[in-house]
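Board notes (copied after class):
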Amino acid sequence: MFLRGGCALLLLATAPVTLTQTNGVSVLVSSGRPFYEAFVLAGEANWITYVMYECQLVFHPDGSMGAAAVIWCIYSLLDVLAPVTVTTTLERNCSSTDYIYTLKCTHGAISIGSLQRLYVLLGIQAAGLLITVFWQHHRTRIDNRRPITALFTGVASALLHHELDDIGYILTGLIPLQPDRIFFDVKLWVIVRVTQEPVAPATVAADPLRFPASPWHARISAVAGFLYVVAAVSSSYSYLQIAKRTLVNDLIWPGFSLSSTHVFLSNCLWGRIAMNQTDGDFALTDPSINAVGSTVALTTSSPTHFGARMQYSTLTTLLDAVHGLRATDACDTPWIFTPYCYLDFGGVWDLAATATRQARCRRMMATNAAVYLESLLRNVKWDDWVTCWGPSFDSAFGMHLATTRQGQAFLASVSQPRLSIADEVSYWQRHGLESYELQWQNFKVIGLDNTYSIVNALGLSYPFTLQRSQGYFRREFQTTYKLYWSLANDLANLRNQTSLLRASPAFAYANASLEDVYLANATFLTAPLPAGYAVVRAALGPFGAIDATYVEVPRVVRAVARDIMSAVATHRARSLKLQAAYATLQVNFLDLLVPAPWLKLGFSTVGGSLLCSDLMMASSSPISVGLLRLFLFESKCTGGVLSSTLSSTPDGWVFAALFSNTSASEHCVQVPNAAAQCRATFAAVTQWTATMAPLNIASLSTAMDALVALNISLMQYGTLHSTAPLALFTTPIFDELFAFFGSMFVLDWLRGQRDVVRFTGDHGSLTLLSDLIVRTIEPVEAAELSSMFALYAHATVQYITFVMAGLAAVAGLYIVVSRGRVEGLNMLELSRVGGIVWVGRPLLVVRSVSALCLLSTATTLSLHYPSPYLVSFATEASSALTTCLAASEVTWLVGILNDICLAITREHSTRYTTINSLLVWSIAACLTSLQPVEHRATMDFRCVSTALDFQVDCSTGSIAIGFLDRVLLLIAVIVACNGVCYGLVRALWPVSASLRRSQSLLLTAGAKYLFTHDGWLLGDVYYMDRASALLSGLLTVSVRGSLVLFDVKTWRMQPVHSKKPTTDDILPPRFETAVPLPDTPIAHFV
């Protein structure tokens, strides 16, 4: 309660600040709280008042809480009339530590909270308490008929003024079971009965049969109890050390680190995605999962345009298309990049810019729903569409359609309310549509949010980012408008009274092609065409009618690559020698690579991207000095000679050797500047692969045939000599001599570091390989590794350990002061009775849950460095001591269940609880040791377009490090053992009729039914030793030879019974320091 009130105070001392946007400008706004919020916070802050008030009741048992209402009002008015404001201080201070490279500056501070206000609020609390105490001390005492029973708490006795009704009883912790006669006391967890008979005085009649037969028995019992207390505290402290190592994050995965484990997992999962391993379980400890070198980094690396790859190659089903279209803002849908062929699914109205392209649509794209504009029109919010594009749409389509009944019917159909997604997909299928495939462009970046999750033992899933990027437009840097500039530009640049329907007399491109429009605008094409664009036009056809189709890696190629790379990873993990040889392959020399046919031609190159004109290049260079940059998404066609970029890695060389299945080194002539190094590296690679077992991949030749059939080529602009005209030079990457290096390019392509695009125009087609795409580097997000539960769980374990240690220390002190005259068997209930009273069930549940989580989490899984060259996952089994300690901590939950059941099990409890705990402990330890929990990694790669052709969200899979079913199994074991043990004891060991237990109102259910009362009962008085009393929440202090008793459960002083024996018998010596607790019945509550 104090913490809750403290949180409210902090909020009252902080200005409410919100970030708002106005006309695209973000500003911080502090507008003050509304009165009702201030009123609620003021009420919550009063928890501190209540706590402090209850604490002082020990010294002033009578009182009033009038100060709380005053404080409530003051807080509310203060927050409304004088709210905390945001203050800003601007002051630039700069300093340097090295005087050369680093400059550290601070520009000021923003304060949203006020320490002075916090002091004022605390001062008001303190003043209210002091005034209350002062008033209580000096006011006239009157009889308010307050409750006097020991069952009521101190605050109830101080504040309840009248005879209680059922609501009042419930507020004091007494649940009425029978009006005014039978109650269930939540504090003591016992049923109490009210009698209307006069209260008889307590009598003390010695019962020699209840005394121990030998004093040695009592002494041995006391020593055993003391040793148990020491052992219990030692075990608790040992578990605290285990919790300190394991409860480091909410995953309950001590080996997890963002800078190592997450980075390694990121690389591993991206690798599996690249190889099409997108479904099924796998083990992180599989020998094929390893990496060369260190993975310790504060950044992750991922393929840059993976969102676009998913959009073009995976999210092509009709269901994905309908979902994506409906999730996209209607105003943005014309930017979905697809050159439309038809208006309607029936193909009645043609839309292609040229007749040749229209024929190409009919021949090659008839089943692609993306080329039908009806797919868009049927799934946008029609009102929004009309608002944004209504006039342009009417000009381009509506005016002509309105002239025929068929056109009118079409307009009416697309503007009707949308069908359900399933019905819409069925409608598309009835028109023979099979897919929805968009085209490649670079005027916008398709964003990606890709995550994987880790599941802990509580079944909670925590997502971690593999890549996070937002889609955005980059129109000023685009180079693909010349191919086709999108429907949005068609609509925006359409001349008045012209149409995009080929059948319309006002067809916009009837007399002037789209290329002519480009040239007239002179934005990205100028007349006359530069030589580079002229040769592209000659090879492909007119601009404005060129399709750019993204080419995905054939499945058979991915399957073969997966087998090869898995075999390579498994093989290199076998020995230190193989790892060293692999990691030290000299591959960095490869920065220049020229296909043999081009070396033979010896032309001069002036550029390598068909999207950029040769005139944008500063100069030409002989092809022998390397290729110039190929087409690239990021390329801006700026001036300057930029060489093509190569990726040369050990993975690439080994994969190329195995995939191309070549053993000759003639291909090294294509590395003009480092042929000797190439041959040396090739020999080393061949030697390394020779140590592998034969792969025997049957589909290897099929994969190669599939790649050859694609005719993927490299392209360069060039001239054969100084007077020769500019020409377009292409060569396939799987030319006989270039197949080795072509295989390297395939691995880049697989991993998302190169694109393959087929450019198809009215005259011809080219399938080209892009230049190397730089991977996206993102910092790890520290906020994703949550540690809230772990922090609180560890703090709870720590708190309980220290409380139990303190309780044991005081109990030990009582044992010493009492000279060992205590009931040692009661000390065995340190956890069941002392823990429940002094710690409380909720915190003990948290500690038990932490132990359940440890027992239900995979054995230590962490990154392992078997050599300086390799890193992989490895597991380490938990020690027997750790398992036993964690299993022992589960018995806290056993104790809680026993305590809850005491109201039912009653006298049988003491006979089965110990057996129950030992049984659960044994089963939990054996289950964990004999059937240890193992992690489960699952690939379940799924993507969805949250904005079609603009944003893709993906979920890659999950890693279960803990299992909720194991937690539930252990809980079931606890419940079952409790039921079985109680049932057997009740059936086989009936309670003796002569068994007597104290009925004192100061004893909890645990002390009443679990403590040993034999030998400590005289008549109706239970003489409880001070150590046992402490466990039951009764703190005693000897003052001038008399005991002062403070009941922690009710937070009030209790009178100590003092009566002389009714006979001439002398009390046993152990009773001299004991606390006499009479069986006082309840006559009335007032």
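Comment from the instructor: The chain is about 40% helix and 15% strand. The chain has a mean pLDDT of 89.
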